[in-house]
Structures are given as C-alpha cells and as structure tokens.
Design brief:
The complex is a heterodimer.
Chain A lengths: L1 H71 L2 H10 L22
Chain B lengths: L1 H30 L1 H12 E6 L6 E2 L5 E6 L1 E6 L7 H12 L3 H7 L7 E8 H9 L5 E5 L2 E3 L7 H4 L1 E4 L5 E4 L1 H5 L1 H5 L3 E7 L5 E8 L8 E4 L3 H17 L4 E7 L6 E7 L18 H4 L9 H11 L15 E3 L2 E3 L12 H7 L2 H11 L1 H10 L26 H7 L9 H12 L3 E4 L3 E5 L5 E3 L3 E5 L3 H17 L13 E11 L2 E15 L6 E8 L11 H16 L6
Parallel strand pairs in B: 2-12
Antiparallel strand pairs in B: 1-10, 2-3, 3-7, 4-5, 4-6, 8-9, 10-11, 12-18, 13-14, 13-23, 15-16, 17-20, 18-19, 21-22, 22-23
Helix pairs in contact in B: 3-4, 9-18, 11-13, 11-14, 11-17, 12-17
The chains are: A mainly alpha, B alpha+beta.
C-alpha cells in the first residue's frame, strides 16, 4: 500500500517536472524566436532605408527622363529643328479627286 | 544579541535601499515621467511629411502640357557656415540672388533658414559642387512645361498658399486645384537608436492621395498654330495684343485658346501681374459688327425678316433721340436686303432689324445667346460684363446694340453664341477638360453640356448662308482661302473711354466657322488696337483666314468647289 502511494507520488513528481521542463523549453524557444525576429527587424531596417533611398532615386530619375522625353518631343523643339533643316510650312496642297486619274493631273 | 543587531542593521540597510529605489523611481516615473516619455517617443518615432504628387495636364493626344520635375527647397544652418561673405558670394550666381540679400538672411540665432524655393535638379547639382557647409535640400515639387510658355493663360501657374504649400492660380491650375493637388500628409514610423527604420509598420494621419491628371480638348497642333499665327499677326498689325479661340461647335470643346501679351508659367513672378488674366475669358470689349450675326439670327428665327426683306430706312443716316446713326463708311444703299445688310455691315439696316424684332424679343434673345452671363467654362477667373436690366435701356441703346455698340461681351461669350449658329441653333457650354484620370488609372469622361436651343435650325442655316455671302463678297474677301465655304463676320469696335469713343483706337475682330455646311471649328480672332489699319477686315480677318487655311490642311478638308 505504502509502495503504491510512493509510486503514485513519484509519477506526479515526474509529470510535474516534465510540465515545468516543457514550459521552460517553450519559453526559451519563444525567447530565441523573439530575439531572432528582433534582430531581423533591426537589420532589415537598414535594408528598408536603402530601398527607400533607391525608390527615391528611381522616382527622381524617372521624372527627369520623362522631362527629357517631353522636351525632345515638344512642338517647340520639333519646329526649331525643322527650321534649322530649312523646312517651310506647306502653302499650297493638291486635292486629288477619287474619280480622276493622278496621271492626268498637271 | 550580536546576530540580532546584525539582522536589524541589514534590515535597515534593505529598507533604506528600498526607499532610495522607490524615491528614485518616483522621481523618474512620476515627476519626470511625461518628459521622458516624450523624449523616448522622439527617439523611436520618426514623423515625416509626404507631399502628394500634383497631377499633370495633357493635350487631347495625351502629350504633356504640364508635368512635374524634381524640385527642391534650398535651406541652410548659419551656425555651420564659417565664412558668411564667401558663402553668399559663391551661392549668388548659382541661384540668381544678389549677395547682399543672401547674407541678410543668415541670422546666427537660427538653425534653419530657407534660401530659395523651387530650384531644379541642375541647380541643386551646381550647388552641391560648391561643397558649401551648412547647406541642405528638401523636396519641393516643381512644374515643368515641355512646350515652354504655350497656353500659359490656359494652364495658369502654381504658386504658394499661406502655409507655403503649392496652390494653383488662374486657368486650369486654379480651377481644378482641388483635383490635381491631391492630399499630402504625415507618416509616422519607428526607428532604432541609429535612426534606421524598424519594420513595425507605418501609420499615416490620413490616406495620401496623389493629384489627378487632366486631359484637355486642346489640340496641341492647333494650339501651336494659333499661338504662332497670333504672335505674328500682333507684330504685323502693330497691335497691343490679341486673342484667338477655336472651339468645336458641336460639343463646346475648346480646341485652342491663345492670347497676347502672354507670360511664362515657370517664371511668372518676372511678369506684370496684369498678364496673368486670360483675355479670352476675362477681357471684355464691345463686339462691334460681329454682334450683328446674333441680332439678325434672332430676327430670322422670329420670322420678322428673311434674307430678301428690304430695308426701308437704309438710304441715309438714321436720326434717333438726338443722335445720328451712320454706316461705318458713310455709304448708304437704298432698299438693301438683309443679305446686303450683313454683307455691307450696314448699321442702319441693323436698326431696321432691331425695330422689326422689338426690344422684348431682342433682349430675350441676347439672354438666350448667353450675353451677360458667364459661360461657365472650366477656367478660373472668368468674367462677364453686366447686361443692363430692361428698365435701363433707352431707344438709342437698343438701336446701337443691334450693331454691337453699347453692349459688352467676352471673346468666349461671342464664340459660344456664334457656335450656336454653326450648330443648328444649339448652344453648348464651352469646356476645356475632356477627362480626368484618377490615381487608379480610371478615366472619367466629361460629357458635352447642351444648354438650350437658341434659334430655330432653319434660322441657323439661313444665317450661315448670309455669313458665307458676307465672307465671299464682303470687305475681307481678298484674304479668304479659295474654294472653301466659310461663314463669318468682321467687327471693328471703338474703345469707350471717359464717356466717349476713342476715334483712333479700335478692337478689330472676326468670328466665323468652317466648313459652313458641316463646321469643324468656330473661331474668333480679336486684335487689340491695331495700328497698321483700324479695321477688322484688314487685320483680324486675314489672321482668321491664315489660321483657317492651316486648319483645313491639318484636318484634311478639301475645298468644296
């Protein structure tokens, strides 16, 4: 009878130890996880800052390129280039009637 | 006994240490708690301002008229500057500010002083190359105009509001400011001890929304042609200024709008502020003979005259209430028909038409044509001259109004009204923006707004033919492009000054549309105070035909005969 009680007590003690070990184990794992996560957060901060700078640079460069394209394609620039090439505006144009043969036109 | 003393000593030591800790904690947490909390927040909280991107303005073909470019605010911390004189001397030529005014800004007691707003990327690079200490840059959006000062009166410009934020003034920038400025705000993020961001998410005080883009009815090529021709015309005729408006009569969409003298939107501060106002929508003038088209159209619509009705008072000057009404060249044609009245631009004939129509009808038609009310065009600062109330009209006022004297209009009002004649009597609201592109790319179309039927379709057709006849046989026939049917009317209005008309200064104008049977455009050309000739037929009309010729070419419209 005494032996049985002792065994039951030892079994409870063993379960208690196991539970405590499990809790400690989980706590340690979570703490390590937290540590790793914090470390990653902290180190990715630098990455984020770099990406932000890059984004800003790309946006700026994109704006500058858009500006260059717009300037190059503006009528002002085209007109200037046409003038430099001695082009002149059309002052008269020929209207070709569908029914009439082009070869007969003078 | 000895052990008891030791025990008590240790106990008191513990109590003392405990009290010290408690009092220290009280000091840090209660007395200086708020201050430290604020300090901590300042260390890990980083709040930065995000300005919204201002929307662009695009021509009908989506080519850019106004876009953004990187811009910066140049600031300095005077405490870091070693030699202020040298600092000002080096900076002065780069930012185009004199040395004295730069030096005057450098107060020692301040840490942050703005030196120059809205500098571009190139200037920033030039400043950086100087390696000046105490200089910094803050982003500040800047507008870029690929077509230089083209359509300056249409676009308006971006200045600053009372808080130093970008704000649109005049034209589209002013009218659509709320749409295109977007909504900026502040963003709060967390940083570590080194100031690097921590990925804990960011919080914005409100959603940051970029501005919307505007797509216009304005055709880039037509605008370019109109501006070029107007500039040349103003120089050729020695005029003080001028305006050209080209509109699609079937929708009210503005295809081009140009005025001289103009200004440059990018350097608006260097120009006289009087130039900011758009003469096409705010420049009031007496329309002169171009107004005859509206009065005659009203009379035709009422059926009180037809093209062959004979004028029984056209054989000489008309006396009225102590005044004498003459024709512009003092020539009189007995039994003139209404066709002749428009062709000869006969003032006495118009008095005849006015009498036939009667005051009540004339007044209601003027209102129906939109005289005296703003057109509602989507541009800031539209003005409309007041149409006198009925009780303020005398017989002479009615008589002079029939040939466009004593009434005032704006160019846009005249274009809209004549546009109704071109469009079978249907009056449309003029508008510049054809669609708005939202941030998500969704395009919201703006539909043409039909206002009312002003005159009958039949009257509009008859009036069109009378205007075609006026162009073919009138004073300006020498300049008309051959083979095309153009409906139009010249106008030469004297300028009222101090209760009388200046005999030497006029506003010459020509309003018309083409091709007459299926109009692609209605156009008004106004030349202010030309010196080569005071008459519309010799200034505004040739300019109208020059632009019309280019438009026929551009639209591939062949001659009709």
């Amino acid at each position: 009878m005494y032996k049985m009680k002792l065994e039951a007590k030892q079994e409870r003690k063993r379960r208690f130890t196991l539970l405590v070990s499990l809790i400690i184990g989980v706590t340690v794992v979570l703490a390590i996880f937290q540590l790793v996560l914090s470390n990653r957060l902290a180190s990715y901060g630098g990455e984020l800052a770099k990406l932000r700078t890059q984004e800003k640079e790309f946006t700026e460069s994109n704006m500058l390129l858009t500006k260059e394209i717009a300037k190059a394609g503006s009528l002002e620039t085209i007109a200037q280039k046409a003038q430099n090439l001695s082009m002149t505006s059309a002052t008269a144009f020929l209207v070709v009637e569908k029914a009439e043969s082009v070869a007969l036109l003078r | 006994m000895e052990s008891q003393t030791r025990f008590k000593l240790i106990l008191w030591a513990f109590i003392l240490v405990f009290l010290v800790i408690i009092s220290r904690l009280f000091y840090w947490q209660i007395i200086r708690g708020d201050e430290l909390a604020a300090l901590a927040q300042k260390q890990y909280n980083f709040v930065y301002k995000v300005t919204s991107k201002r929307g662009g303005i695009y021509f009908a073909d989506k080519s850019p008229l106004v876009i953004n470019q990187p811009g910066f605010l140049l600031y300095t911390n005077p405490k870091e500057i070693e030699d202020k004189k040298m600092f000002a001397k080096l900076l002065s030529p780069v930012i185009a500010q004199d040395e004295a005014s730069i030096a005057a800004k450098l107060h020692d007691e301040l840490y942050w002083i703005p030196i120059k707003h809205k500098i571009d990327e190139e200037t920033r690079k030039e400043i950086e190359a100087l390696h000046l200490k105490g200089v910094g840059f803050e982003e500040e959006p800047l507008r870029f105009y690929p077509e230089s000062s083209m359509a300056a009166h249409l676009t308006g410009f971006v200045g600053s509001d009372v808080n130093g934020e970008g704000k649109g003034y005049f034209g589209l920038e002013g009218f659509y400011d709320r749409e295109i400025r977007g909504r900026g705000g502040t963003v709060q993020s967390f940083v570590d001890a080194l100031g690097r961001p921590i990925l804990l998410g960011e919080q914005s005080n409100a959603p940051i929304v970029n501005g919307r883009d505007l797509v216009l009815n304005i055709d880039r090529t037509i605008q370019f042609m109109a501006e070029k021709s107007l500039k040349e015309g103003v120089e050729k005729y020695g005029a003080k200024g001028g305006s050209v408006i080209i509109m699609d009569p079937k929708t009210g969409g503005i295809l081009a709008m140009a005025s001289q003298p103009s200004y440059n939107q990018a350097t608006y501060g260097d120009f006289d502020q009087a130039n900011y106002k758009n003469p096409s929508i705010a420049g009031t003038y007496e329309p002169g003979s171009t107004f005859k088209t509206l009065v005659m159209a009203a009379a035709l619509s009422e059926g009180v005259v037809d093209p062959y009705t004979k004028c029984d008072i056209c054989d000489g000057p008309v006396s009225l209430g102590g005044f004498t009404i003459r024709t512009w060249n003092n020539k009189y044609y007995k039994d003139s028909t209404m066709l002749d009245v428009i062709e000869h631009s006969d003032n006495t004939g118009m008095v005849f038409v006015g009498r036939k129509l009667g005051f009540e009808k004339l007044y209601s038609y003027l209102q129906a044509f939109g005289i005296g009310e703003p057109t509602g065009i989507d541009l800031e600062d539209e003005e409309s001259p007041f149409l006198r109330t009925k009780k303020d009209w005398h017989e002479i006022d009615m008589a002079t109004a029939t040939f466009g004297q004593g009434v005032a209009v704006t160019p846009i009002q005249m274009v809209r009204a004549v546009g109704a004649i071109a469009n079978g009597g249907k009056l449309y609201k003029p508008y510049v923006v054809s669609s708005i592109i939202k941030e998500n790319g969704e395009e919201v179309k703006i539909e043409p707004e039909f206002l009312r039927q002003v005159i009958s379709e039949k009257a509009a057709k008859v009036m069109t033919e009378m205007m075609v006849n006026a162009v073919d046989n009138g004073e300006a026939k020498f300049a008309k492009p051959k083979g095309y049917r153009i409906a139009g009317k010249t106008g030469t209005a004297q300028i009222p000054i101090a209760g009388h008309y200046d005999p030497n200064k006029t506003i010459a104008s020509f309003v018309g549309f083409a091709p007459a049977n299926d109009p692609k455009f209605v156009m008004l050309v106004r030349v202010d105070e030309p010196t080569s000739s005071i008459f519309g037929a010799e200034t505004a009309a040739p300019l109208f035909f020059t632009i019309a010729r280019e438009l026929f070419n551009y639209y591939n419209i062949p001659p009709s005969n």
